[in-house]
Amino acid sequence: MCAGGVPEPNRTHPVDAALAALGIRAAAAGVNRERLKHRLAPWEMRIGLHTGPAMAGLVGKQKFAYDVWGDTVNIAARVEQCGEVGKINISEGVYKRVGHLFETKSRGSIEAKNKGQLPMYFLERIMPELSADADGITPNERFHAEARRV
Question: Is pLDDT above 90 for 136?
């Protein structure tokens, strides 16, 4: 799990997290191509994104760790759990913040454990006109200009 906008809050954390998710998915696909060449099982992963307030801080007495918690973190975990292998699943909150920058696909409402029905979307790629590459992973200058308006 990772968190954007901590320890210093920023307005672009959903965009930053979506770009990171695209990069992670692309890197995992590259690793899996190599694994298949060596007849190894693919590395399966799901990515889930949610946005909202969270608590963060150091925990521990002997060994310290930085941790995040709260309902936002719980929903992010549910969004990931309801995702599909190799896909980026995003909550409605993320969709509302980044949907104009990325191609998405509505999944409708999905039953999330202890949260009920949550509207979810798959994040596919950066919009073609906002992408510097054919795969929709690298943003262009226009993307950055649009993202500053989030």
Answer: yes
